[in-house]
Automatic annotation (TrEMBL):
The lineage of its organism: Bacteria, Bacillati, Actinomycetota, Actinomycetes, Micrococcales. GO terms for molecular function: 5-amino-6-(5-phosphoribosylamino)uracil reductase activity. This is Riboflavin biosynthesis protein RibD. It comes from Brachybacterium endophyticum. InterPro entries: DHFR-like_dom_sf (IPR024072), RibDG_C (IPR002734), Riboflavin_Biosynth_HTPR (IPR050765). It comes from the Bacteria. SUPFAM superfamilies: Dihydrofolate reductase-like. One of its GO terms (biological process) is riboflavin biosynthetic process. Residues 4-183 form the Bacterial bifunctional deaminase-reductase C-terminal domain. Coiled coil: none annotated.
Length: 190
């Protein structure tokens, strides 16, 4: 069965973006980039990966799942940001923009969708955002891969949205710290 990994950058205080979706405080350069990009190859938008000489093939994921706000960050420049992956955007209120023919848009219940995707053949499923979608899918997430950035945002979009108090145990499977201050923490459901 396929597994769902929530792979995302996060601040020390648990935000994946600022209040208006800002993510420019996260480090995009440093000694952490090459090893993390190698470990999670294929998770950079294709245009950016090609410009940086990063491979997009043979990564851990063949499907990327995201909410509308995460998807919309690339609009209108990149209406199909991960053309090398199966792209699925969960939205009930937006139509597919021009140039997004390679992207699936669905209003399907996220839990039902993920359970269906897990039952299909293929490699891993990457949840790349956002926080509200992660909260809805918290019980379906098999792995967390957190690029913990050495910054406090103070406010913004929480890693798991408004999930409410519901403790869930995770097991740390790997930690790698870098001179840049970024730490890659990897966890599996306990």
């Amino acid at each position: 069965m396929r597994e769902l990994t929530y792979y995302v950058a996060v601040s020390l205080d648990g935000f994946i973006a600022g209040p208006d979706g800002q993510f420019d405080a996260f480090l995009a350069e440093g000694d952490h980039m090459a090893p993390i990009c190698a470990r999670y190859r294929g998770t950079a938008p294709r245009v950016l990966a090609e410009a940086a000489g990063l491979p997009t093939e043979d990564g851990p994921f063949d499907t990327v799942l995201m909410g509308w706000n995460t998807y919309a960050v690339a609009l209108p420049t990149l209406p199909s940001p991960y053309a090398h992956l199966r792209q699925v955007v969960i939205t009930r209120h937006h139509d597919a923009p021009e140039g997004s023919e390679d992207v699936e848009f669905t209003g399907e219940d996220p839990v039902a969708l993920v359970r269906r995707l897990k039952g299909e053949s293929g490699s891993g499923i990457w949840l790349c955002g956002g926080g509200a979608l992660a909260a809805a899918l918290a019980d379906e997430i098999d792995h967390l891969a957190l690029k913990i950035n050495p910054v406090l945002l103070g406010d913004g979009i929480p890693l798991f949205g408004s999930r409410g108090y519901s403790p869930a145990a995770w097991r740390c499977t790997a930690v790698q710290s870098f001179a840049s201050g970024v730490t890659l923490g990897e966890y599996s459901r306990a």
